[in-house]
Amino acid sequence: MENEIDMNALGESIVKVLKTIFDPEIPVDIYELGLIYDVFVNENREVKILMTLTSPNCPVAETLPMEVKEKVSSINMVKDVELELTFDPPWNKDLMSEEAKLELGML
């Protein structure tokens, strides 16, 4: 049971870190923007993140995934981080949270 609580806490820590990373062109964090498609954590505390960018030509295509990997790797409980970048499905504004849409005046 204790291990399960650790996994929940770890998941929350990962989301908290993801919410500190911003797309430089849009004043909203990448989690609320819907750029994070999935986060998997196994019992060995290895994390796999499936994410996208607002476009394949995004100016931060090189740096943003590295920032995500580095920041999530810095969490004490995380043993390893694998990051997969995908453009399937392509990102669109519908993936944004209500909070992000409100922040950008889209509601």
From TrEMBL:
Pfam families: FeS_assembly_P. Transmembrane segments: none annotated. InterPro entries: Fe-S_Maturation_MIP18, FSCA_dom_sf, MIP18-like. SUPFAM superfamilies: Fe-S cluster assembly (FSCA) domain-like (SSF117916). It comes from the Bacteria. Residues 13-82 form the MIP18 family-like domain. PANTHER family: FE-S PROTEIN MATURATION AUXILIARY FACTOR YITW. This is Iron-sulfur cluster assembly protein. The lineage of its organism: Bacteria, Pseudomonadati, Bacteroidota, Flavobacteriia, Flavobacteriales.
